[in-house]
Design goal:
By secondary structure, this protein is of the alpha+beta class. It is built from 4 helices and 7 strands, in the order βααβββαβαββ. A 7-stranded mixed sheet has the order 1-2-3-4-5-7-6, sandwiched between helices. α3 links the parallel β4 and β5. Bound molecules: coenzyme A.
């Protein structure tokens, strides 16, 4: 039997989502290092998982391998995305889109009605993903990124209601 194919991308991958666990942090930090110029440390993730009651972190697995992760803080009816990354070998296969859609769904089930994030002004790839999922740029945080003093775009999206979902 042939697997379904997404235009020119090869077989569609079937990701599995689950909450991030402390045991994942080693793999997560490796992905973080290949994805960001100022990666979060293991201690930062440890603190998020153990001490931050607003924080929710998801891991996406493909055939048992951690292919990406994303996190957010849900405060009242707003979700603030803290980070999202796909391991480089898995990029361009619609997995970032699946992951952000799942994060948005989790935000919705926790009562969030809007989602926000910051993104480097030069990170067109991520901006394209966010725009595809309904995010719009509403402003700029000047010099937000300390490594090169780059500005951040502030983006917001309304979260579509998912009344039929229970979790
Ligand atoms: C941004 C990131 C999460 C996207 O994940 P991905 O799995 O590669 O993206 P997807 O395959 O799901 O693509 C979804 C959309 O993103 C955009 N996109 C993805 N790759 C792109 C590329 N090479 N060029 C332009 N746009 C691109 C497109 O809008 C795409 O939709 P389309 O395929 O219908 O055009 C991934 O590139 C990544 O981890 N980057 C490093 C970390 C990072 O920058 N995180 C964001 C910080 S704010």
């Amino acid at each position: 039997m042939e697997l379904p194919v997404a235009d020119g991308l090869g077989p569609l991958l079937s990701p599995v989502f689950r909450p991030m666990r402390v045991e994942d942090i080693g793999s997560i930090v490796e992905i973080e290092k290949e994805a960001f110029p100022t990666p979060w440390t293991a201690g930062a993730f440890q603190n998020e998982l153990s001490n931050n009651h607003f924080a929710h972190y998801l891991v996406m697995e493909v055939e048992g391998d951690i292919a990406g992760y994303a996190g957010m803080w849900v405060i009242m009816d707003e979700a603030h995305v803290t980070n999202i990354a796909i391991r480089s070998m898995y990029r361009g296969k619609k997995l970032g889109e699946r992951l952000l859609t799942e994060l948005r769904s989790k935000a919705n089930s926790r009562g969030a009605k809007r989602m926000t994030l910051e993104v480097r002004v030069t990170n067109r790839i991520a901006q394209n993903l966010y725009e595809k999922l309904g995010f719009r740029s509403v402003g700029v945080r000047k010099g937000y990124y300390t490594d090169n003093n780059e500005d951040a775009l502030i983006m917001w999206a309304d979260i579509p209601e998912e009344r039929w979902k229970t979790s």
